[in-house]
Write a structure and sequence with these properties.
alpha+beta, elongated, cell membrane, single chain, 6-stranded mixed barrel, membrane, 6-stranded mixed beta barrel, 54% helix
Length: 826
């Protein structure tokens, strides 16, 4: 081993001999991987480190449409310090007759129990006539200290501008407004049936287990419908969004690393080819194969180590940069400090991929026969079975590490299998192209025959180039198709299909007045009303949800409060797929119909029972049917619908949608509604779409950057794979020049080679990427597949042009070789 290291040190004096490609591919790939994992880890680190402050306590207990009873409050106070708040959606009327949806919270003095509210200016509300508004609301509508705001029946003045405050869920689609409990009472928005949530933040003694105490509280009041959020669930919406986004970006980054492995293998092959003469001479003088392998591995290890360090350095600074650049889009600022765990995993990925990609070409070079090398043979010989042991173990390590570090192992596994299948598909396509080129060896003129012959000659990189180019272009086409379809849905389909306004908290007693107002101020509009309540699912077949160890993936109806309604007729956009819908005049024991996907996640069947707490009263109902729901109908789609005769006696409000004739404004209706029924909350669909679009555009930008990294690696791999065959191309160019070919003739022959190879791969990549995009859009998002076909077709064609130009650029040094100088070196 010592002899091998000495040889490696001396060998480095000859230069890196093609390992620049390894340096480039590995640096870019590790940088992308480290950036993605560091950003996800940094956001998670902030949530974990500030969980108590983000939650506003050690644990939060919340219940819908009622406040805690004296017994419940007494039980909370025995656990620790309690600070309560009541939150609901409301419409705020601003100067200039503008209205905006806000999250209104009436808070107790000293709220929250832990953490603090950060004010950009002013102070918290101290009287019934004051309100503190969110910074985004103040900046967007020009509000300042003293500005008037009307919410419900309360006339308020802005006392402060809120910069940050505890937000257990993370993302919010409407800005916050804080008032005192007296201010909330003055608004008269909290009425029987109103959709509000009472939350109680608890500061517990040191060492107390918030999750355990919260679960014990649920079990003590099993019919209360209480939801527990402990520090581990702080910013749960942000955490889920970050995990899923990070998972998607991680898979793209791993794909880029996989493409980079082809370049790393090409670099190792080029490096080994540059050392063929040295290896032959050393073997003649008695060097052992093991020492030669160590000699070659020393150079590769040093360059790989440098590439990994550079990649990690780039990835380490990404959380801080993103935190500054996207501060308004992220509800939680990423921790800017290095994420050592994420960086360590990225380094391990890089090491394993390098080992898997470089072992085989180095092992082949180390065992090359001196006689064959000195004769100038191009073929490196076959592969022995034992040479595959190390690469296969390293590749298995990459897959195992990806699975172990994944948030969704099923998705990761399917993606890895799909990527491998796609890689084999393009490898097979490359093999077919080489075979077809051999079969057509007598077709066309001399230049055409030379170009086609280059695709199947010994040492040709046709298969490697096909895989690198195919995977990169497939990814680019797929993401372009998915992004265009989502943007089309948000920008065109949703505004066209969705109603202009959603309205909440319409008192049931005011239904007639509401309908008269709509008819007078929005004539011809499509108006729909449905009863609305909220309540959590507390038990399934008699088993309390609080006693479940874990909520199954996809069982979202068990997470928090659910919207509830009752109906005689099957709603539009719903279809019964199991069981049956009840008669319009049903009058019997409680029945429910639930969403089919939720039923599958919970393994429910017709006849099972489901218990829902409504205003603290448990209602057990038998499941009568399962429904599929067309969520794109943009109507009132409830996962849980009760049969008539169960909820009518409970205090409830109405929800409504209004869709005016095309080209008609709803501003007059909104103004008159705010004046006549100020307790009604109005949600503009356009405002929600704008907010969601801003979040998705940020996500789309991140995906595009990750994709560009993959494409950059693909181009680098393409150039490197061509450069790796420089010795053979130089020899061919010199021989052609000796028999009278000009440089332009050789250039044309190589252009034909690259065009023939990339043309077939581009067609296959376009088909694979389009199919993947169609499946993602129609099956995962349930949207219509509406890509920009012009861009979708142009992308692979542009990729083909870039591939040809890149390959010709990489082959240019071989084309410039002078016969006399080249013959002395061959």
């Amino acid at each position: 081993m010592i002899a091998g290291l000495r040889l490696g040190r001396r060998d480095l004096a000859q230069g890196i001999g093609g390992l620049w490609l390894l340096l480039a591919c590995l640096t870019i790939a590790v940088a992308g991987l480290a950036a993605v994992t560091s950003l996800a880890s940094a956001i998670g680190s902030t949530i974990d480190g500030q969980a108590r402050e983000l939650l506003g306590g050690d644990v939060a207990l919340s219940v819908s449409q009622r406040q805690a009873s004296e017994a419940e409050l007494a039980a909370m106070r025995r656990l620790g310090t309690v600070r309560g708040s009541v939150t609901l959606r409301s419409t705020a009327r601003l100067p200039g007759e503008r209205t905006v949806l806000v999250d209104l919270s009436g808070i107790e003095p000293g709220w929250p129990a832990a953490g603090r509210i950060t004010l950009a200016s002013g102070r918290l509300p101290g009287s019934a006539g004051e309100a503190a508004v969110g910074r985004e609301l103040a900046e967007r509508y020009g509000l300042g200290i003293g500005s008037p705001v009307r919410i419900g029946y309360a006339n308020l003045r802005v006392s402060g501008i809120v910069d940050e405050l505890p937000a257990p869920s993370g993302f919010a689609l409407s800005p916050p407004v804080l008032v005192s409990q007296a201010g909330l009472a003055a608004s008269r928005l909290v009425q029987p049936g109103s959709l509000y949530t009472s939350s109680y933040r608890l500061a517990l003694p040191p060492g107390a287990d918030g999750a355990a105490l919260g679960k014990a509280f649920q079990q003590r009041f099993p019919d209360g419908g209480w939801r527990v959020t402990d520090k581990g669930d702080a910013a749960s919406g942000t955490r889920r969004f970050t995990d899923r986004t990070g998972q998607m970006l991680l898979l793209i980054a791993l794909g880029a690393l996989g493409i980079g492995s082809i370049g790393i293998a090409s670099a190792a092959s080029a490096f080994a080819a540059s050392r063929r003469a040295t290896i032959a001479i050393l073997k003649v003088h008695g060097a052992r194969q093991r020492d030669l392998l160590i000699m070659l591995g020393t150079s590769v290890a040093l360059l790989a180590g440098l590439a990994i360090l550079l990649g990690l350095a780039i990835g380490a600074v990404v959380p801080g940069v993103v935190g500054k650049a996207a501060a308004d889009l992220l509800p939680v600022a990423p921790d800017p400090s290095p994420q050592w765990g994420a960086l360590g995993r990225s380094a391990l990925f890089g090491l394993l991929v390098t080992l898997a990609a470089t072992w085989l070409p180095l092992a082949r070079a180390a065992r090359a026969r001196p006689a064959a090398v000195l004769r100038g043979d191009v073929d490196e010989g076959g592969t022995r079975a034992r040479d595959l042991i190390v690469p296969l173990l390293a590749a298995a390590g990459v897959v195992a590490l990806a699975m172990l570090t994944s948030e969704n192992r099923l998705t990761t596994g399917v993606t890895i299998v799909g990527a491998l299948a796609l890689a084999f598909l393009f490898a097979g396509a490359g093999w077919v192209i080489a075979r077809l080129a051999r079969a057509a060896s007598g077709v066309g003129g001399p230049l055409t025959r030379l170009g086609l012959a280059a695709l199947h000659r010994p040492g040709a990189a046709t298969v490697r180039l096909s895989v690198a180019l195919g995977l990169g272009l497939s990814l680019l086409v797929a993401l372009s198709g998915v992004g265009a379809s989502i943007r089309s849905e948000l920008g065109e389909n949703i505004p066209a299909k969705a109603p202009a306004l959603f309205m909440l908290d319409i008192p049931a007693a005011e239904e007639a007045r509401f309908r008269q107002l709509a008819a007078a101020t929005a004539p011809g509009a499509d108006l729909r009303l449905v009863p609305s309540l909220r309540g959590p699912v507390t038990a399934l077949n008699g088993q309390p949800v609080s006693a479940m160890r874990a909520i199954p993936e996809g069982a979202w109806i068990l997470r928090g409060d659910r919207g509830l309604t009752f109906a005689r007729d099957l709603p539009v956009g719903n279809k019964v797929v199991a069981g049956g819908w009840w008669p319009r005049d049903y009058a019997g024991p409680p029945l429910v119909s639930i969403d089919m996907e939720a039923a599958k996640a919970l393994n429910l069947k017709i006849g099972d029972t489901l218990t829902v707490a409504v205003l603290g009263v448990p209602i057990e109902a038998r499941i009568a049917s399962f429904r599929t729901i067309d969520w794109r109908s943009f109507g009132f789609n409830f996962a849980i619908i009760f049969a008539p005769g169960t909820l009518e006696q409970a205090p409830y409000t109405l929800m409504a949608t209004i869709a005016p004739p095309r080209g008609t404004s709803t501003l007059r209706f909104e103004r008159d509604l705010a004046e006549a029924l100020p307790m009604v909350s109005t949600i503009r669909v356009s405002d929600v779409v704008t907010r969601v679009t801003a979040i998705l555009e940020g996500l789309d930008g991140a995906i595009r950057i990750a994709t560009l990294v993959a494409i950059l690696i693909g181009v680098t791999v393409l150039a490197g794979a061509v450069a790796a065959t420089r010795r053979a191309r130089t020899r061919e160019s010199v021989l052609l020049k000796l028999v009278g070919a000009s440089r332009s003739d050789v250039l044309k022959a190589q252009g034909i080679e690259f065009a023939a190879m990339s043309g077939g791969i581009v067609l296959l990549a376009f088909a694979a990427g389009t199919i993947a995009a169609w499946l993602t859009v129609t099956r995962l998002f349930d949207f219509a597949f509406r890509p920009d076909w012009l861009i979708l077709v142009a992308l692979p064609l542009a990729g083909m042009l870039v591939a040809i130009l890149t390959a010709l650029g990489a082959a240019w040094p071989a084309l410039r070789a002078r016969p006399a100088a080249a013959l002395r070196d061959l």
